[in-house]
Amino acid sequence: MSPNLTRHLGLLQISAASVLWGTGGLVVTVIHDRSGLGAMTASAWRMALATVALVAFIAVTGRAGQAITMMRSRPVVPIVVGCGTALYQGLYFASVLSIGVAVATVVALGLSPILASIWHHIQARTAPSLREIAVLAAALVGLCLVTFGGAPHERGGGATNFTAGLLLAIAAGATYAATTILGHRLASRTDPVVIATCTTTAGAVALAPLFLVAALNGEPVVPSDPTSLGLLVYLGVFTLALSYGLLYAGLRTTSGAAATVVTLVEPISAAVLAAVLLGQQLTWMSVVGAILILGAVVGLPAGRDVPDGRPDPGV
Fold this sequence. Notes:
This protein is an all-alpha fold. The protein has 13 helices and no strands. Helix 2 packs antiparallel against helix 8.
């Protein structure tokens, strides 16, 4: 496969992961409405079920030895990435409860590509090109239009909650950028399914105490109906196990900074799903925003970070 085709495949793999992530919010909402399961408890189940699926997959495909070797020889980065993924979920959901999904999404997802790009250029000791600036600007404007261009959103919370929620969203964006960059470094030298297994297992262990917290607070720990159980399995297997396998596969040929731009496809997926399943109307602002984000993804420079840490001129 030619280098250009390989790079484009990487972008498509990350885009596919983002589409799957975009379905997660609706699934969590449906589970909560049907069974009362909280968002954080659903996140813990998502990590746990993804771990079961990934461990079973690597056992069947004979990759368990690679995972064990990886955790014995260099356990720090996989554990940090897995705990970072779990932390991002917690920070983001807490931000949503304080300032609403619209502002939380724009701040968290919008900040990630900016921070990743800044880090990239600090390492490379270069200045961003006009093309990079245009790509980031188009992606961020598109994100705002998709997020705010639909039905009116409430900010949520009072002034104190808004300040705290904004800080949580900023922390979520920084955490997401950092874990994506670290994930890229892992992906350059390890099987993506093995990486997903190790990082997800670490994240599942980090979120396991949430089951106890829910039980002590008298909240549901396990969904009470078969439909919710099925949706929970979908949440773990497809929106985490499969999607993170795709992400790490894509990160083999796509820089961490570029990947944070591509993941802005996630709110497009969520908006389209809401229109199809919930009857929410797609406004012209949402459509224009989606076009800008997709245009930014197509316009990404083709470069990538070289595995030895010497980044090339990609976003």
